[in-house]
Structures are given as structure tokens and as C-alpha cells.
Amino acid sequence: MFSALRVTFLTLILTLSLGSYNYIYSQENEVADDSVLVDDAKEIVDVETVNHDDPIEAIFHHVTDANEIQVWGDIVFPLPVIVRKADGSWSTGISSQYVDGKDGLVLSHGHIVNVETHSKDGLMDFSITKNVFMMILSVIVLSYLFLGVKNAYTKRGVTSAPKGFQSLIEPVFIFLRDDFIEPNLGKYTDKFSPYIYSVFFFILINNLFGLIPFFPFGANLSGNIAFTMTLAVLTLIITNVSGSKSYWSHIIAMPGVPKALWLLLTPLELLGILTKPFALMIRLFANITAGHFIVLSLTSLIFILGSNGASIGGAIGGTAVAVPFVLFMNALELLVAFLQAYIFALLSAIFIGLAVVEEH
Amino acid sequence: MFLFNAMELITPNIGLVFWTTVIFVIFWFFVGKFAFKPVANAIKSREDSIEKALASAEKAKEEMQKLQADNQAAVRQAQQEASEILKEARELKASIESKAQEKAKDEANKIIADARLEIQKQKESALLEVKQEVSKLAVQIAEKVLEKELSDNKGQQELIADLIKKLN
User: Fold this and answer.
1) In terms of residue numbers, what domain contains B145?
2) Could you give the C-alpha distances from B52 to A81, A161, A163, B48, B56, in angstroms and in order?
3) Contacts of residue B1 in chain A, CB cutoff 8 Å?
4) Eight-state DSSP code of residue A253
5) For residue A131, which residues of chain B lie inside 8 Å, CB to CB?
6) Under an 8 A CB cutoff, do B18 and A126 touch?
7) What's the structural domain count of chain B?
8) Omega into A216 within 30° of 0, i.e. cis?
9) Per-residue pLDDT, A27
10) Burial (CB count <10 Å: 0-12, 13-18, 19+), residue A262
């Protein structure tokens, strides 16, 4: 019963992901054709050089951010646009207003770009993009779930057994706390655990939302370097702001080490302050993006072998190969979604724990 | 084109950095304060209460075991006491019996001895009486015989006198 349900669910997801991919392809072609209307030499060059049987374009389209969300085929969900232009003026509106150009900007391939240069050069895009939209959604969902859990505790008391989502969250909380929060943070657990929990659930839900291929999910938010960088920088700030005297002395002037060696070790340690969060940033970004890449690349097999619709036999062959692989990859990505959230939270706890510890 | 895309992929967008910071920090403070902290505390207090309940259950179990042991000891002691009492009673009974028997025997012996003594006495007194009677009878017989013979014989009178002397 359960497994049948699961198979149905996975098949549905797969079908939808294949379907949406197909539409991305068709839209890629259309958008490219439309943009010929924009009198721009560079775009014409682009149209000539872009091979639409080449899946790279579509894959990048999928994993990068966008100023609109493709719901199904030509149906797009427009998003608010807030852009600061090179001359310092701001342009705001809804992305659908920019299709035919507005304020010297135009919506091309889902991105707001300069009409003249057809690039984002000089623009500062503060729009509610696909990623920001999903991030807001994820925060709303998380807040709703966790305030519900908290209410369950206050309403039903701590002596009664947990129920519903509460009983799903409780073991996760206990696992995180006993596995690495308390061992690393010790008496500082209460001070830093909200950050660790926030990071874990924030990354986890966006990893999972990123795996759901239909509207309004599917944005590659946790595989976006800006997102991972922000979280890594927050860990960096917390680590160094709460760093104890002993932490700094072990970086700048290690006790028990010959002073001559400080010349060598201090720069290394100072560099280490940055490399740790840098590794956090790259790890999450690379893992999630790579997962999306592999799923999309495998899906592309259908279109490559099917010559983008020309060869039915090839498409069937491609499907036969792609479906099991994509299924496997989706299962793997599910694991990676949990694993990467866990690793990010674990390493954040370790870095903060190492910084706050006084003497050892 | 690939290079352009790849560069886009690894170039952080200022807008997304801005929104991630704003949204995450709000989430961290808001949900951290109103959900994560209370939930963590609730879990902690739940664990404490479970631990306390387990400890008290363990204690109750120990107490019950102790109580059971006490009960068993009391039962054993009572049994021992009962058996001791029984044993004593049996001994007492035996001693009473034997004493009674002895006493009875003594009594019987005494009675027998008394009876024997009485018999002896009676016998002796009877014999004495018989003797006296016999002697009386003999005297009377002798008187009668003598009345007849003594009248005619002097020597015989002397003999009689001699005999009477001996008799006394």
C-alpha cells in the first residue's frame, strides 16, 4: 500500500519533470525567436550560434535564477521586479511588463537585462526572483510548521506523547542536539542552537523544495552560490564574533609554538578563518547544483536521442534509459538534501564550538 | 555561451544575497525565538520528566522488592515461631504424660505397698486372734479334759500347771 503510493508519487514527479523540461525546450525556441524582434545585433549572433539541440542552455536556464516562474509551457507566473540601473535610477514593476521592454530593460530568457547590451552588466537586481519567491514560501511553511509544533507543546504539555508533525520533529531535534550541537557547543547550546536549527531546516526545506519539479517549487535556491555564501558568511560572523580569547590566541599567537613559526602559522590560521566558511559555501552549492545538473542531463537524453522530437524511437530509447537513472538520481538527491543540510549545520556547530571554547 | 553561463552560476547575485540575509535573519530570530527555543526546552523538560518517572518507577520497584523481601522474612519467621511453639507443646505434652505415668505408677506402688502392709497387719492380728481363740479353745478343751482327769490324779495336775506356765 505504502510502497505503491510512493511509486505513484515518484512517477508523477518524474512525469511532471519530464513534461516541464519539454516545455522549457519549446519556450527556449520561442523566446529566442521573439528576441529577434528586439533590434540587437548581439542577440542575432546568439540566435545563430545557440544550438537548440544542445541541452546545456536549457539546463543552465533551469539551475540559475529567473525573474519569472514557468508554471507550464507558456504559462508563466510573473514576479515583482526591483532593479537598480547603472545610472542609479530604480525600475520597479511586474516581470510581465518587461516582456516588450520597460525603462530600458527587457525580460529575455526569464532574465531582466539591458535592452542595449542584452546583459545584466551594471544592473543590481533586487527583484523577488524565482529563488526569493521560493525562499519566502519556504520560510512561511517552516514558520507555520514550527509554530504549530511549539503550540502542540504548550497546548498538550510535555508529559503527553507527541502527535502528528510534532512526533516527526522531536526525534530530529533530539538527533541534532545529541549528535553534534551539545557535544560541540556544551554550555553554549542554548545560545547557538536556534541558529543551528534554523540553518538546518532552512537548507533542508529549500533542498527538498528544489527537488519538486513543479510550480511554485523547483528553484535551485540552495544550489545558488549567493544563498550558500550568505549562510556561510553568517556562520563566519557568528564564529568570529563569539570567538573566545583562547580562539584568537590560537590563531594569532599560538601558545607553546616557537615564535619563529608564528610567521608561518599565523597567516595560515588567518586564512583558515576564511577557508572554513568558503568550504561550506562551495560544498552546498556544488552538491545541490550538481544534483540538478545530473537529473537534467539524464532527462536531456530523451531529447538528444529523440533528436528533439524528430525521432520517436530514439525518444522511447532515451526514456527507457533516462527514467531509471533519473529515478535513482532523485532518490540520491533526496539523501543529499538531508545530508548537505546536516553537514552544513554540523560544520557550523563545530566551527562555532571551536571558537567559543575557552581553554583546553 | 557555456562560459558565460558558468560564470553566472558562480557569481553571487547581490539581490539574492540581500534577500537571503533579510529573510534568513528574520526567520532565525523569529522562528528561533518563538519555535526552536521553546521546542528545544519542551523536549528537554519532557526528557527530564521521563527520566524522573523512570527513576521513580525504579525506586518504587526497589521498594516493592524490599517490601516483598520483608514480607517473606516475616512469613518465614512466623512459620519458624509456629513450629517452635508446636515443638514446645509436643515436648510439654510428652513430659506431662511421662510425669503423669510416673506419678500413677508411684501411686499404684504406694497403694499396693499399703495394701500389703494392711494385709500383713490383718494377717498378724488375725493370726493373733486365732492363736488366742485356739489357746482359749485349748484351755477350755483342756479344762474340760482336766476337770475330768484332775480329780483323780495328782500328778496330772502338776503337769497341767507346768503346761500353763509354758503357754504363758
Assistant:
1) 2-167
2) 57, 16, 22, 6, 6
3) 46, 49-50, 56-57
4) S
5) 16, 19
6) yes
7) 1
8) yes
9) 44
10) middle
**Complete DSSP assignment for A173-228:** HHHHIIIIIHHHHGGGHHHHHHHHHHHHHHHHHHHHHHH--STT-----TTSHHHH
- As a whole-number percent, the residues of chain A with pLDDT over 90 amount to 34
Q: Is A242 helix (H, G, I), strand (E, B) or coil?
A: coil
CA distance linking residue A164 with residue A147, whole number of Å: 14
Please tell me the pTM assigned to this model.
0.72
C-alpha span between A279 and A350 (Å, rounded):
14
Q: CB B11 to CB A225 under 8 A?
A: yes
What is the spatial distance between Cα A189 and Cα A144, in angstroms, rounded to a whole number? 24
Rounded alpha-carbon distances, angstroms, from residue A352 to A210, A247, A252, A330, B132: 28, 10, 18, 33, 146
- Among A256, A250, A291, CA closest to A270: A250
Do the interacting molecules here have an ipTM over 0.90?
no
User: For chains A and B, what is the number of CB pairs under 8 angstroms?
Assistant: 140
Helices within chain B (DSSP H only): 2-10, 14-31, 37-150, 154-167
Residues on chain A touching B39 (C-beta within 8 angstroms): 146, 149-150, 153, 169, 173
For an interface test with B, the pick among A51, A132, A168, A344 (most B C-beta atoms closer than 10 Å) comes out as A132
Residue to test with chain B: of A67, A82, A119, A227, most B Cβ within 10 A: A227
Residue of A197, A236, A238, A282 for testing the chain B interface, max B β-carbons within 10 Å: A197
pLDDT in tens, A87-96: 888 888 898 8
- CA atoms A132, A133, A137, A138: torsion sign: negative
Q: Under a CB-based contact definition with an 8 Å cutoff, are residues A28 and A52 in contact?
A: yes
CA distance A111 to A354: 42
**What cell was used for A218?**
523547483
| Contact (CB, 8 A) for A206 and A200 | no
Write down the mean pLDDT value for chain A: 82
